[in-house]
Design goal:
The structure is a single chain. The protein has about 475 residues and is of the alpha+beta class. It has 3 domains: about 240 residues, no CATH class; about 140 residues, Protein Transport Mog1p, Chain A; about 45 residues. Helix content is about 40%, strand content about 25%. It has 17 helices and 19 strands. A 7-stranded antiparallel β-sheet has the order 10-11-12-16-15-14-13. It has a 4-stranded antiparallel β-sheet with strand order 7-8-9-17. Strands 3-5-4 form a 3-stranded mixed β-sheet, sandwiched between helices. β15 and β16 form a beta hairpin. The structure holds zinc ion. The site of zinc ion has 6 residues, from α5 and α9.
Protein backbone atom coordinates (compact mmCIF):
# COMPACT_ATOMS: atom_id res chain seq x y z
CA UNK A 1 0.00 0.00 0.00
CA UNK A 2 2.63 2.48 1.04
CA UNK A 3 4.87 1.34 -1.75
CA UNK A 4 2.16 1.93 -4.30
CA UNK A 5 1.40 5.42 -3.08
CA UNK A 6 5.09 6.20 -3.14
CA UNK A 7 5.38 5.11 -6.75
CA UNK A 8 2.39 7.20 -7.76
CA UNK A 9 3.89 10.17 -5.95
CA UNK A 10 7.23 9.78 -7.69
CA UNK A 11 5.51 9.59 -11.07
CA UNK A 12 3.49 12.70 -10.27
CA UNK A 13 6.63 14.52 -9.24
CA UNK A 14 8.51 13.44 -12.34
CA UNK A 15 5.63 14.49 -14.55
CA UNK A 16 5.75 18.01 -13.21
CA UNK A 17 9.51 18.17 -12.95
CA UNK A 18 11.14 21.48 -13.57
CA UNK A 19 14.01 23.57 -12.36
CA UNK A 20 12.12 25.83 -10.03
CA UNK A 21 13.73 28.57 -8.01
CA UNK A 22 13.49 27.99 -4.28
CA UNK A 23 11.83 31.10 -2.80
CA UNK A 24 14.01 31.10 0.32
CA UNK A 25 17.46 30.27 -1.03
CA UNK A 26 16.98 31.87 -4.45
CA UNK A 27 18.76 28.81 -5.88
CA UNK A 28 17.51 26.24 -8.31
CA UNK A 29 15.93 23.25 -6.66
CA UNK A 30 15.85 20.00 -8.54
CA UNK A 31 12.95 18.00 -7.21
CA UNK A 32 10.16 20.50 -7.10
CA UNK A 33 6.72 20.38 -8.54
CA UNK A 34 5.47 23.56 -10.15
CA UNK A 35 3.84 26.15 -7.92
CA UNK A 36 0.53 25.42 -9.66
CA UNK A 37 0.74 21.72 -8.81
CA UNK A 38 1.80 22.49 -5.27
CA UNK A 39 -1.19 24.78 -4.72
CA UNK A 40 -3.54 22.22 -6.26
CA UNK A 41 -2.21 19.53 -3.91
CA UNK A 42 -2.77 21.82 -0.92
CA UNK A 43 -6.26 22.78 -2.05
CA UNK A 44 -7.28 19.14 -2.36
CA UNK A 45 -5.79 18.07 0.98
CA UNK A 46 -7.35 21.10 2.68
CA UNK A 47 -10.82 19.61 2.17
CA UNK A 48 -9.69 16.36 3.79
CA UNK A 49 -8.23 18.17 6.79
CA UNK A 50 -11.43 20.14 7.32
CA UNK A 51 -13.44 16.94 7.05
CA UNK A 52 -11.31 15.08 9.55
CA UNK A 53 -10.91 17.74 12.23
CA UNK A 54 -13.71 20.20 11.72
CA UNK A 55 -13.33 23.96 11.91
CA UNK A 56 -13.60 25.50 15.37
CA UNK A 57 -16.89 27.40 15.39
CA UNK A 58 -15.81 30.90 16.40
CA UNK A 59 -15.61 33.32 13.46
CA UNK A 60 -14.06 36.05 15.61
CA UNK A 61 -11.18 33.83 16.71
CA UNK A 62 -10.72 32.56 13.14
CA UNK A 63 -10.41 36.08 11.78
CA UNK A 64 -7.98 37.03 14.57
CA UNK A 65 -5.65 34.15 13.65
CA UNK A 66 -6.04 34.96 9.96
CA UNK A 67 -5.05 38.58 10.61
CA UNK A 68 -1.97 37.65 12.65
CA UNK A 69 -1.01 35.12 9.98
CA UNK A 70 -1.50 37.51 7.07
CA UNK A 71 0.78 40.13 8.62
CA UNK A 72 3.55 37.55 8.99
CA UNK A 73 2.95 36.13 5.52
CA UNK A 74 3.20 39.61 3.99
CA UNK A 75 6.77 39.75 5.35
CA UNK A 76 7.66 36.26 4.12
CA UNK A 77 9.58 35.00 1.09
CA UNK A 78 6.38 33.99 -0.69
CA UNK A 79 4.08 36.94 -0.22
CA UNK A 80 2.57 36.25 -3.64
CA UNK A 81 0.48 33.42 -2.16
CA UNK A 82 -2.89 33.82 -0.51
CA UNK A 83 -2.55 32.14 2.88
CA UNK A 84 -5.42 30.54 4.73
CA UNK A 85 -5.14 30.06 8.49
CA UNK A 86 -7.64 27.75 10.15
CA UNK A 87 -8.27 26.99 13.83
CA UNK A 88 -9.22 23.30 13.99
CA UNK A 89 -11.73 21.95 16.50
CA UNK A 90 -9.30 19.54 18.11
CA UNK A 91 -7.96 19.19 21.64
CA UNK A 92 -4.72 17.79 20.23
CA UNK A 93 -1.73 20.09 20.60
CA UNK A 94 -0.69 20.59 17.01
CA UNK A 95 -0.07 22.92 14.09
CA UNK A 96 0.84 22.07 10.52
CA UNK A 97 1.04 23.40 6.99
CA UNK A 98 -0.05 22.01 3.66
CA UNK A 99 1.63 23.02 0.40
CA UNK A 100 0.42 26.21 -1.19
CA UNK A 101 -0.30 28.25 1.95
CA UNK A 102 -2.85 26.28 3.97
CA UNK A 103 -1.93 26.54 7.66
CA UNK A 104 -3.65 25.01 10.68
CA UNK A 105 -3.49 25.39 14.43
CA UNK A 106 -5.64 23.39 16.84
CA UNK A 107 -7.64 25.06 19.59
CA UNK A 108 -5.76 22.59 21.84
CA UNK A 109 -2.43 24.26 21.05
CA UNK A 110 -3.96 27.75 21.22
CA UNK A 111 -5.16 27.10 24.78
CA UNK A 112 -1.56 26.56 25.95
CA UNK A 113 -0.15 29.73 24.36
CA UNK A 114 -0.03 32.93 26.39
CA UNK A 115 0.49 35.81 23.99
CA UNK A 116 -0.05 36.95 20.43
CA UNK A 117 3.72 36.75 19.94
CA UNK A 118 3.62 33.02 20.78
CA UNK A 119 0.74 32.51 18.36
CA UNK A 120 2.77 34.41 15.75
CA UNK A 121 5.76 32.13 16.47
CA UNK A 122 3.71 28.99 15.77
CA UNK A 123 2.20 30.50 12.63
CA UNK A 124 5.57 31.92 11.51
CA UNK A 125 7.20 28.51 11.85
CA UNK A 126 4.47 26.96 9.69
CA UNK A 127 4.77 29.75 7.10
CA UNK A 128 8.49 28.86 7.07
CA UNK A 129 7.62 25.30 6.02
CA UNK A 130 5.54 26.74 3.16
CA UNK A 131 8.06 29.31 1.97
CA UNK A 132 10.95 26.83 2.04
CA UNK A 133 8.69 24.34 0.27
CA UNK A 134 9.49 21.57 2.76
CA UNK A 135 6.29 19.72 2.05
CA UNK A 136 7.20 19.49 -1.60
CA UNK A 137 10.82 18.70 -0.96
CA UNK A 138 10.17 16.13 1.67
CA UNK A 139 6.59 14.88 1.78
CA UNK A 140 7.70 11.38 2.57
CA UNK A 141 5.81 8.40 1.32
CA UNK A 142 5.01 7.59 4.93
CA UNK A 143 3.33 10.92 5.52
CA UNK A 144 1.24 10.74 2.38
CA UNK A 145 0.24 7.18 3.21
CA UNK A 146 -0.69 8.38 6.66
CA UNK A 147 -2.89 11.16 5.37
CA UNK A 148 -4.60 8.67 3.09
CA UNK A 149 -5.16 6.26 5.94
CA UNK A 150 -6.42 8.67 8.56
CA UNK A 151 -8.33 11.34 6.69
CA UNK A 152 -11.75 11.22 5.24
CA UNK A 153 -13.63 8.91 7.58
CA UNK A 154 -15.78 9.57 10.61
CA UNK A 155 -15.05 7.01 13.31
CA UNK A 156 -13.95 3.51 12.35
CA UNK A 157 -14.46 2.84 8.67
CA UNK A 158 -14.83 -0.90 9.06
CA UNK A 159 -12.49 -3.59 10.11
CA UNK A 160 -9.34 -3.02 8.14
CA UNK A 161 -8.53 0.41 9.40
CA UNK A 162 -9.61 -0.57 12.90
CA UNK A 163 -7.00 -3.30 12.66
CA UNK A 164 -4.37 -0.89 11.44
CA UNK A 165 -5.10 1.58 14.19
CA UNK A 166 -4.90 -1.09 16.86
CA UNK A 167 -1.57 -2.19 15.45
CA UNK A 168 -0.41 1.40 15.63
CA UNK A 169 -1.36 1.61 19.28
CA UNK A 170 0.29 -1.68 20.15
CA UNK A 171 3.33 -0.85 18.13
CA UNK A 172 5.28 2.35 18.46
CA UNK A 173 4.44 3.82 15.08
CA UNK A 174 4.91 7.55 15.41
CA UNK A 175 4.22 10.28 12.96
CA UNK A 176 7.42 11.51 11.50
CA UNK A 177 8.14 15.21 11.42
CA UNK A 178 10.03 17.04 8.72
CA UNK A 179 13.35 16.13 10.25
CA UNK A 180 15.82 18.18 12.21
CA UNK A 181 17.25 20.28 9.39
CA UNK A 182 13.90 21.40 8.04
CA UNK A 183 12.49 22.09 11.50
CA UNK A 184 15.48 24.27 12.29
CA UNK A 185 15.07 26.07 8.98
CA UNK A 186 11.38 26.67 9.74
CA UNK A 187 12.33 28.09 13.15
CA UNK A 188 14.89 30.35 11.51
CA UNK A 189 12.41 31.60 8.93
CA UNK A 190 9.69 31.95 11.55
CA UNK A 191 12.03 34.02 13.75
CA UNK A 192 12.86 36.23 10.76
CA UNK A 193 9.16 36.79 9.97
CA UNK A 194 8.49 37.58 13.64
CA UNK A 195 11.26 40.18 13.61
CA UNK A 196 10.08 41.74 10.34
CA UNK A 197 6.54 41.96 11.79
CA UNK A 198 7.83 43.66 14.96
CA UNK A 199 7.38 40.70 17.28
CA UNK A 200 10.26 39.57 19.45
CA UNK A 201 11.83 36.50 17.82
CA UNK A 202 12.45 35.09 21.32
CA UNK A 203 8.76 34.07 21.29
CA UNK A 204 9.93 31.11 19.21
CA UNK A 205 11.83 29.80 22.24
CA UNK A 206 8.81 30.37 24.51
CA UNK A 207 6.67 28.20 22.25
CA UNK A 208 9.27 25.46 22.15
CA UNK A 209 9.28 25.52 25.96
CA UNK A 210 5.46 25.21 25.99
CA UNK A 211 5.67 22.14 23.77
CA UNK A 212 8.52 20.59 25.72
CA UNK A 213 6.59 21.00 28.98
CA UNK A 214 3.56 19.34 27.36
CA UNK A 215 5.74 16.45 26.36
CA UNK A 216 7.32 16.19 29.81
CA UNK A 217 3.93 16.19 31.52
CA UNK A 218 2.40 13.68 29.10
CA UNK A 219 5.36 11.33 29.54
CA UNK A 220 4.99 11.49 33.34
CA UNK A 221 1.21 11.03 33.25
CA UNK A 222 1.47 8.12 30.80
CA UNK A 223 4.05 6.41 32.98
CA UNK A 224 1.83 6.79 36.05
CA UNK A 225 -1.15 5.39 34.14
CA UNK A 226 0.82 2.59 32.52
CA UNK A 227 0.11 3.65 28.95
CA UNK A 228 1.94 4.91 25.90
CA UNK A 229 2.39 8.69 25.87
CA UNK A 230 0.38 10.67 23.33
CA UNK A 231 3.08 12.91 21.93
CA UNK A 232 2.66 14.77 18.71
CA UNK A 233 5.85 14.59 16.78
CA UNK A 234 6.75 16.82 13.94
CA UNK A 235 6.03 20.13 15.60
CA UNK A 236 9.22 21.81 16.78
CA UNK A 237 9.96 18.62 18.66
CA UNK A 238 13.18 17.69 16.98
CA UNK A 239 15.28 20.04 19.02
CA UNK A 240 15.46 21.17 22.65
CA UNK A 241 15.12 24.88 23.44
CA UNK A 242 18.67 24.82 24.75
CA UNK A 243 19.92 23.80 21.31
CA UNK A 244 22.89 26.04 20.49
CA UNK A 245 22.06 26.25 16.79
CA UNK A 246 18.49 27.23 17.56
CA UNK A 247 19.65 30.01 19.91
CA UNK A 248 21.95 31.15 17.14
CA UNK A 249 19.33 31.37 14.39
CA UNK A 250 16.96 33.24 16.69
CA UNK A 251 19.62 35.72 17.77
CA UNK A 252 20.44 36.15 14.08
CA UNK A 253 16.84 37.16 13.33
CA UNK A 254 17.27 40.32 15.40
CA UNK A 255 18.90 42.04 12.45
CA UNK A 256 15.57 42.02 10.60
CA UNK A 257 13.89 44.14 13.25
CA UNK A 258 12.89 47.49 11.75
CA UNK A 259 12.10 49.18 15.04
CA UNK A 260 12.90 48.37 18.63
CA UNK A 261 9.25 47.31 18.92
CA UNK A 262 8.80 44.24 21.00
CA UNK A 263 5.15 43.44 20.68
CA UNK A 264 4.03 40.63 23.00
CA UNK A 265 0.24 41.09 23.04
CA UNK A 266 -0.49 39.16 26.23
CA UNK A 267 -3.71 41.01 27.17
CA UNK A 268 -5.25 40.79 23.72
CA UNK A 269 -4.43 37.07 23.49
CA UNK A 270 -5.75 36.26 26.98
CA UNK A 271 -8.96 38.07 26.05
CA UNK A 272 -9.31 35.87 22.95
CA UNK A 273 -8.88 32.76 25.12
CA UNK A 274 -11.85 33.65 27.32
CA UNK A 275 -14.57 31.10 26.51
CA UNK A 276 -12.42 28.81 24.34
CA UNK A 277 -13.61 25.19 24.45
CA UNK A 278 -11.08 23.11 26.40
CA UNK A 279 -10.76 19.34 26.03
CA UNK A 280 -13.54 17.45 24.26
CA UNK A 281 -16.04 19.35 22.13
CA UNK A 282 -19.75 18.45 21.86
CA UNK A 283 -19.22 17.80 18.14
CA UNK A 284 -16.86 14.94 18.97
CA UNK A 285 -18.40 13.70 22.21
CA UNK A 286 -17.43 14.35 25.81
CA UNK A 287 -15.63 12.05 28.25
CA UNK A 288 -16.61 12.47 31.92
CA UNK A 289 -15.00 9.95 34.25
CA UNK A 290 -15.84 6.52 32.78
CA UNK A 291 -18.77 7.86 30.78
CA UNK A 292 -18.91 9.01 27.19
CA UNK A 293 -21.67 11.36 26.02
CA UNK A 294 -22.26 12.23 22.39
CA UNK A 295 -24.97 14.85 22.39
CA UNK A 296 -24.92 15.40 18.64
CA UNK A 297 -25.23 11.71 17.75
CA UNK A 298 -27.60 11.18 20.67
CA UNK A 299 -25.98 8.31 22.56
CA UNK A 300 -24.07 7.59 25.77
CA UNK A 301 -21.93 4.69 27.00
CA UNK A 302 -20.06 3.58 30.09
CA UNK A 303 -16.58 2.08 30.05
CA UNK A 304 -15.04 -0.36 32.57
CA UNK A 305 -13.56 1.08 35.78
CA UNK A 306 -9.97 2.26 35.41
CA UNK A 307 -9.80 2.05 31.61
CA UNK A 308 -8.39 5.02 29.74
CA UNK A 309 -10.67 6.70 27.20
CA UNK A 310 -9.10 8.47 24.22
CA UNK A 311 -11.54 10.44 22.09
CA UNK A 312 -10.08 10.82 18.60
CA UNK A 313 -11.88 12.68 15.79
CA UNK A 314 -12.46 9.43 13.93
CA UNK A 315 -12.88 6.93 16.75
CA UNK A 316 -13.14 6.31 20.46
CA UNK A 317 -10.28 4.21 21.81
CA UNK A 318 -10.54 2.62 25.24
CA UNK A 319 -7.56 0.86 26.78
CA UNK A 320 -7.26 -1.35 29.86
CA UNK A 321 -4.66 -0.43 32.52
CA UNK A 322 -1.16 -1.10 31.15
CA UNK A 323 -2.62 -1.46 27.65
CA UNK A 324 -3.31 -5.19 28.04
CA UNK A 325 -6.58 -4.91 26.12
CA UNK A 326 -8.18 -2.38 23.80
CA UNK A 327 -11.59 -1.46 22.56
CA UNK A 328 -12.57 0.89 19.77
CA UNK A 329 -15.89 2.35 18.85
CA UNK A 330 -16.52 3.43 15.28
CA UNK A 331 -19.52 4.31 13.21
CA UNK A 332 -20.73 3.76 9.65
CA UNK A 333 -23.85 4.57 7.67
CA UNK A 334 -26.27 1.69 7.13
CA UNK A 335 -27.25 1.89 3.47
CA UNK A 336 -29.25 -1.26 2.86
CA UNK A 337 -32.01 -2.99 4.77
CA UNK A 338 -29.81 -5.68 6.24
CA UNK A 339 -29.65 -7.08 9.75
CA UNK A 340 -26.75 -6.32 12.11
CA UNK A 341 -25.53 -9.87 11.50
CA UNK A 342 -25.59 -9.35 7.73
CA UNK A 343 -23.80 -6.04 8.25
CA UNK A 344 -21.02 -7.92 10.05
CA UNK A 345 -20.76 -10.44 7.23
CA UNK A 346 -21.00 -8.14 4.22
CA UNK A 347 -19.72 -4.78 5.37
CA UNK A 348 -17.11 -5.93 7.89
CA UNK A 349 -16.25 -9.08 5.95
CA UNK A 350 -16.59 -11.33 9.02
CA UNK A 351 -17.34 -14.72 7.46
CA UNK A 352 -16.39 -16.89 10.44
CA UNK A 353 -18.31 -15.59 13.42
CA UNK A 354 -18.40 -17.83 16.49
CA UNK A 355 -20.22 -17.48 19.81
CA UNK A 356 -22.49 -15.06 18.02
CA UNK A 357 -25.95 -13.95 19.09
CA UNK A 358 -28.51 -11.25 18.34
CA UNK A 359 -28.97 -8.66 21.10
CA UNK A 360 -31.43 -5.99 22.03
CA UNK A 361 -29.44 -3.18 23.66
CA UNK A 362 -31.77 -0.66 25.32
CA UNK A 363 -34.17 -0.98 22.39
CA UNK A 364 -31.55 -1.07 19.62
CA UNK A 365 -31.06 -4.07 17.32
CA UNK A 366 -27.58 -5.47 17.70
CA UNK A 367 -25.45 -8.52 17.02
CA UNK A 368 -22.28 -9.76 18.67
CA UNK A 369 -19.72 -12.43 17.86
CA UNK A 370 -16.08 -13.48 17.91
CA UNK A 371 -13.93 -13.54 14.78
CA UNK A 372 -10.28 -14.23 14.01
CA UNK A 373 -8.32 -11.23 12.69
CA UNK A 374 -4.82 -11.24 11.28
CA UNK A 375 -2.69 -8.16 11.82
CA UNK A 376 0.97 -7.62 11.17
CA UNK A 377 1.78 -8.62 14.75
CA UNK A 378 -0.17 -11.86 14.84
CA UNK A 379 -3.54 -13.55 14.74
CA UNK A 380 -6.05 -12.81 17.50
CA UNK A 381 -9.69 -13.42 18.28
CA UNK A 382 -11.62 -10.16 18.35
CA UNK A 383 -15.01 -9.42 19.89
CA UNK A 384 -17.27 -7.51 17.47
CA UNK A 385 -20.57 -5.94 18.38
CA UNK A 386 -22.67 -4.01 15.87
CA UNK A 387 -25.43 -1.80 17.26
CA UNK A 388 -28.01 -0.11 15.03
CA UNK A 389 -28.99 3.35 16.23
CA UNK A 390 -30.55 6.20 14.18
CA UNK A 391 -29.62 4.57 10.86
CA UNK A 392 -25.98 4.26 11.91
CA UNK A 393 -24.10 1.07 12.68
CA UNK A 394 -21.95 1.50 15.79
CA UNK A 395 -19.10 -0.97 15.70
CA UNK A 396 -17.42 -1.87 18.98
CA UNK A 397 -14.34 -4.05 18.65
CA UNK A 398 -12.39 -5.52 21.55
CA UNK A 399 -9.08 -7.36 21.56
CA UNK A 400 -6.47 -8.41 24.12
CA UNK A 401 -2.79 -7.69 23.62
CA UNK A 402 -1.90 -11.29 24.46
CA UNK A 403 -2.98 -13.33 21.41
CA UNK A 404 -4.66 -15.88 23.68
CA UNK A 405 -6.18 -13.36 26.08
CA UNK A 406 -9.49 -12.30 24.55
CA UNK A 407 -11.59 -14.64 26.73
CA UNK A 408 -10.23 -12.97 29.87
CA UNK A 409 -11.55 -9.56 28.76
CA UNK A 410 -14.65 -10.69 26.89
CA UNK A 411 -17.05 -9.78 29.70
CA UNK A 412 -15.71 -6.19 29.66
CA UNK A 413 -16.21 -5.96 25.90
CA UNK A 414 -19.79 -7.23 26.20
CA UNK A 415 -20.69 -5.08 29.21
CA UNK A 416 -19.43 -1.99 27.43
CA UNK A 417 -21.53 -2.81 24.36
CA UNK A 418 -24.56 -3.43 26.61
CA UNK A 419 -24.18 0.05 28.16
CA UNK A 420 -24.95 1.79 24.83
CA UNK A 421 -28.15 3.87 25.14
CA UNK A 422 -29.91 6.98 23.89
CA UNK A 423 -28.63 10.03 25.78
CA UNK A 424 -30.98 11.13 28.59
CA UNK A 425 -31.88 14.74 29.42
CA UNK A 426 -29.72 14.58 32.57
CA UNK A 427 -26.79 13.32 30.53
CA UNK A 428 -27.23 16.16 28.06
CA UNK A 429 -26.47 18.56 30.89
CA UNK A 430 -23.34 16.58 31.80
CA UNK A 431 -22.28 16.65 28.14
CA UNK A 432 -21.49 20.40 28.15
CA UNK A 433 -17.87 21.16 27.25
CA UNK A 434 -15.33 22.76 29.58
CA UNK A 435 -14.21 26.28 28.66
CA UNK A 436 -11.30 28.53 29.47
CA UNK A 437 -11.95 31.61 31.53
CA UNK A 438 -9.51 34.49 31.83
CA UNK A 439 -9.25 35.90 35.35
CA UNK A 440 -7.12 38.49 37.09
CA UNK A 441 -5.62 36.87 40.18
CA UNK A 442 -5.67 38.29 43.70
CA UNK A 443 -2.70 38.50 46.04
CA UNK A 444 -2.76 35.02 47.61
CA UNK A 445 -3.77 32.90 44.64
CA UNK A 446 -1.90 29.62 44.20
CA UNK A 447 -2.30 26.93 41.57
CA UNK A 448 -3.14 24.46 44.37
CA UNK A 449 -6.09 26.65 45.42
CA UNK A 450 -7.26 27.14 41.82
CA UNK A 451 -7.00 23.38 41.25
CA UNK A 452 -9.33 22.69 44.21
CA UNK A 453 -12.23 24.50 42.59
CA UNK A 454 -11.44 23.28 39.08
CA UNK A 455 -13.71 20.85 37.20
CA UNK A 456 -10.62 19.15 35.74
CA UNK A 457 -10.74 15.54 36.85
CA UNK A 458 -7.07 14.63 36.93
CA UNK A 459 -3.78 16.49 37.35
CA UNK A 460 -5.67 19.77 37.65
CA UNK A 461 -2.79 21.66 39.29
CA UNK A 462 -0.32 20.51 36.64
CA UNK A 463 -2.76 21.28 33.83
CA UNK A 464 -3.44 24.80 35.12
CA UNK A 465 0.30 25.44 35.28
CA UNK A 466 0.72 24.12 31.72
CA UNK A 467 -2.13 26.32 30.48
CA UNK A 468 -0.38 29.38 31.88
CA UNK A 469 3.20 28.62 30.90
CA UNK A 470 4.20 27.96 34.53
CA UNK A 471 4.89 24.24 34.55
CA UNK A 472 6.29 22.56 36.61
CA UNK A 473 6.37 24.82 39.69
CA UNK A 474 5.55 28.46 38.89
CA UNK A 475 3.03 30.46 40.94
CA UNK A 476 0.93 33.43 39.80
CA UNK A 477 1.64 36.98 40.93
CA UNK A 478 -1.05 39.38 42.06
CA UNK A 479 -2.76 41.21 39.22
CA UNK A 480 -1.67 38.67 36.61
CA UNK A 481 -4.10 37.41 33.95
CA UNK A 482 -4.54 33.64 34.16
CA UNK A 483 -6.49 31.04 32.23
CA UNK A 484 -8.58 28.73 34.36
CA UNK A 485 -11.07 26.05 33.35
CA UNK A 486 -14.77 26.19 34.17
ZN1 LIG B 1 7.67 22.21 11.81
Amino acid sequence: MRQLIYIILVITLLASFGCAVNPVTGQQDLVLMSEQDEIALGRKSHQQVLQQYGVYDDPELQSYVQKVGERLAANSHRNNLIYRFTVLDSKEVNAFALPGGYIYITRGLMSYLNSEAELAAVVGHEIGHVTARHSVRQYSAAQLANIGATLGAILIPGMNSAGNQLVQIFGTALLRGYGREHELEADQLGAEYLARTDYNPQAMLDVIRVLKNQELFETQAARAEGREPNIYHGLFSTHPDSDARLQEVIAHADKYRNTPSNFIGREIYMDKMNGLVFGDSPEQGIVRGRNFYHEKLGFAMQMPHGWNIMNHPDRLAISAPNGVALMQLGMEDINERISPREFMETRLGLQHLTNDAPLNIHGSDAHTGLAPVNTSDGKRTWRFTVIYFNNQAYILVGVAKDPGGTAEFDSYFLETAQSFHAITSNERILAKPLRLKTIEVGSDTTFAALAQSSPLETYSEEKLRLLNGMFPNGEPQAGMLLKVVE
